[in-house]
Amino acid sequence: MNPETIELVRALGAVHQHIPRVINDLLVEQLPQAKQREFAELLLGLGELLHTHAETPLKPSTELILPPFAPGRHALREPPGPEPPPAT
Fold it and tell me: Is it the case that residue 84 has pLDDT exceeding 90?
């Protein structure tokens, strides 16, 4: 995975972490306008990053570089957290 893809995956994960709270706060009408604008800026930045990534030709890679997530965690389903304790 190339560095641009890693950056995109990290950005997607970061936005993903905020979505449940944003949805909830919007539903109960508790998301201040400033926070709405702040989240909109995150989405716009992510959109630009994704658009740029989509315009970049894929480069074949022989090296697999994974984002820093704990083993067994999916990059977009669970935010990074503490490493699990070593098996004894």
Answer: no
Structure tokens at 65: 């570089």
Measured between alpha carbons, how far is residue 20 from residues 26, 51, 78 in Å? Answer: 10, 24, 12
What does the block give as tokens for 66? 């994974």
pLDDT at residue 76, as a whole number: 47
Query: Which region holds residue 29: left if phi is over 0, alpha if psi is between -120 and 50, else beta?
Result: left
70 phi/psi in degrees, rounded to 5: -65, 150
d(CA 4, CA 85): 31
Supply 29's token pair: 């009408």
Enter the tokens of residue 8.
């995109």
pTM (predicted TM-score)? 0.60
